[in-house]
Design a protein that fits this description.
With 286 residues, this protein is an alpha/beta fold. The protein has one domain (4-260): Ribonuclease Z/Hydroxyacylglutathione hydrolase-like (Metallo-beta-lactamase, Chain A, 4-Layer Sandwich). Helices cover 16% and strands 27% of the residues. It has a 7-stranded mixed sheet. A 7-stranded mixed sheet has the order 8-9-10-11-12-13-14. The longest helix is centred in the middle third of the chain and has 11 residues, at 133-143. The protein starts with a strand and ends in a 26-residue tail after the last strand. Mean pLDDT is 91; it is low at 268-286.
């Protein structure tokens, strides 16, 4: 049975633009959403990433955070009829400061699923405050609690089906342990790509300072090589939809973005998979 994806808009963050796209609008502040994704239609709701812990925590990286009451995790879940205790599992694309902040809101009986290399990378210190000690310590507690943490070895095993219609695959970019979460929807496979792709317009539709055809622009925030970053974006664009965590989803055909979904989502009841979607338009960060 095809699954549905719902976007959770957990807050907005203001940051330097070249963080999103390498060398783009340097010194200019840009405000972008922080998103998570709720997968519905299976035995239990599955949550992909959990946002920031509080508005202060991104200040450690020199960023400003804006969050309304409606954007709190429990309230975003409630918009879709889901309570914290209803979530069957939390799955992570990676563990950065704006992706794993809500993990401690879930009981240890709710498993958190993460690539083992990402947990190793988070404690290495190589990216400093991007992995807050509060998040890492909580996951170490889970590591030593039976059933509280599920570790994947995606670089060694290849893609793993976590639940019917939900597959995790090594992203091989952004961080050393980042993962793609692939979801089978009525409109095709959706790739929840974490921060491999930040800005659809300026990295893919009109890629900044790229001369070659269909050559994406890398972000200004990555721990792997630029070639790995570009290759990962190209792999994400082989799916029917790509869903970043700081921009709205896009419809893809043959590696090209052909439409922007904005706040509509693949597999949702409000999206007719056979009808034309919105034309390509500037992203939230464009």
């Amino acid at each position: 049975m095809p699954l549905e994806i719902r976007i959770l808009h957990l807050c907005d963050v203001e940051l330097e633009s070249s963080f999103l796209v390498l060398a783009h609008d340097m010194g200019i502040a840009t405000r972008v959403p922080v998103l998570a994704h709720l997968i519905l239609g299976g035995d239990e709701p599955i949550l992909v990433d959990t946002g920031v812990r509080d508005t202060e925590i991104l200040g450690r990286l020199g960023m400003r955070t804006f969050q309304t009451e409606e954007q709190l995790l429990e309230n975003q879940l409630a918009l879709h009829g889901v309570a914290l205790e209803d979530v069957g599992a939390v799955v992570h694309t990676h563990l950065h400061i704006d992706h794993a902040g809500g993990d401690d809101r879930f009981p240890l009986t709710t498993p958190v699923i993460v690539n083992r290399r990402e947990l190793e990378f988070s404690v290495s210190g190589l990216m400093g405050a991007q992995y807050p000690p509060e998040y890492v310590k909580h996951l170490v507690d889970r590591l030593h609690t039976p059933g509280a943490l599920r570790l994947l070895d995606l670089e060694l095993t290849g893609p793993v089906e976590l639940f019917p219609g939900v597959v995790a695959e090594a992203a091989q970019s952004h961080t050393e342990g980042s993962a793609f979460i692939l979801v089978e929807t009525a409109g095709g496979t959706a790739c929840i790509c974490g921060d491999v792709l930040y800005d659809v317009q300026n990295q893919v539709v009109e890629p900044w300072h790229q001369a070659n055809a269909l050559e994406p622009a890398p972000s200004g925030n990555h721990a792997t090589t630029k070639r790995q970053e570009k290759a990962a974006i190209k792999r994400a664009l082989q799916h029917a939809f790509v869903l970043p965590m700081h921009d709205w989803p896009a419809k893809v055909e043959h590696g090209r973005v052909v439409a922007r979904l904005h706040d509509r989502v693949p597999g949702g009841r409000d999206v007719d998979a056979t009808a034309p979607l919105d034309k390509v338009a500037p992203s939230m960060t464009g």
